[in-house]
Amino acid sequence: MSDIHDRDRQLFTTSDLLDWTPPKHYRIISSGILNVKNRMLLFGDEGSWKSILAVHTAYCIARGSKWLGFNTYPSNVLRLQIELPMYMDRERLEKYCISSKQIYLARDSRNSITADQLDRLDFKATEWAYPENAINRTEQFIHIDESSGWESLRRNIINCIEVLPQLPLVVILDPLYKMFNRDLSKELDVKPMLDKIDLLMEDASKLIPGISFIIIHHTRKAQTDEKGRPINMLSQDATGSRALLRWVDTILRIDPDPTDTTMTRVRATFTKHRNAEEPLPTLILRWNRDTLHPQILSRIMPKYEDEEELELRGELDIAQLE
Q1: Of 290, 279, 273, 179, the residue nearest 235 (C-alpha)
Q2: Mean pLDDT across the chain
Q3: pTM of the predicted model over 0.85
Q4: Which residue, 219, 274, 289, 315, shows the most beta carbons closer than 10 Å to its own?
C-alpha cells in the first residue's frame, strides 16, 4: 500500500484501490439491480400487486432463486409489513409457500423415482419453499422516522445480524407511507431518515457483508394532458420528495394493465438503474391468484433510437478516447 494510505486509511491511490479485496458477497440481484449496501424503490398504484411482489422478492432472495428472470444470490431478509393485519399476511405467506413447494416439485422431470429419492426431494422442496432466513414482522403502527420506531427497527436488524448466517441482509419496508409520520413531500423531513439508514448500513458492514434496503411505495395522483389522459412521469410519479428518488440506486415502477379485466397483468419498468451492467428489460407479468407467483409474459429489451440508421465507422481506435 502507498505511503498516503498508510498514513490515512481513508485515502487510496489507484493501485491501493486495485489491491483492495472487495467483499466476497456483494451481489444480491444480478445485472446490478441490487448489490450490497444498495437501495431499491419499488412503487406502483393500487392493484399493481406490489405487496405480493415484495413477498416474492423476499423469498427469492432468501433462497437464491430466480427473480423476474434475474439471478439472485442467497441473502438474509427482514420484511416489515404494516398494511395488513397479521392473520391476512399469514394467509398470503401460507398460500405462497405451499405453491412454492408445488412449483419446485413440478420442475423435477424424472418419470420414476425411488422412495428414498422422493423423501429427499420432498425435504429439499420444503427447505426451498420455507427458507429459515426469511424473517417477517407485521405491525399495525410504527413510525421509523421517530426515535421509538427507528430504534425498534434497528433492534430487529441487529438481532437478524447476530442470529442469522453471515450473509448480506436485505430489509424490505412495506409500505413507506404508513411508517412515516412527517411530510413525505418535504426533503427536510425525509432526509434525516435516509441519513439514518445510510449510517446503519455503514455500521452493519463491519459485522456482515452489508445491508441493502427495498422500499415499497405508492404513486401520487397522476398528472393529465389537455385531453385528460394520464401522463407517465416515470420515477417522478412516486409519492413524496425527490430526495428519495435521488437516494435510491434502482427504481422499479409497477403499472396495472388498464385493459385487463382480470386485474392480474402488470407492466414492470426499471425507471432508474444506476448500477445496471446492461440494458434492463421492461417486463409484462401475469400474477396467478391461486399461487401468488408471477408468470413472465414478455421481456421487452430497450432499443437505441434510430438504431438501424447508425453509421458504421470502422474499428475503434482507442487512442481517440478521452
Answers
A1: 273
A2: 88
A3: yes
A4: 219
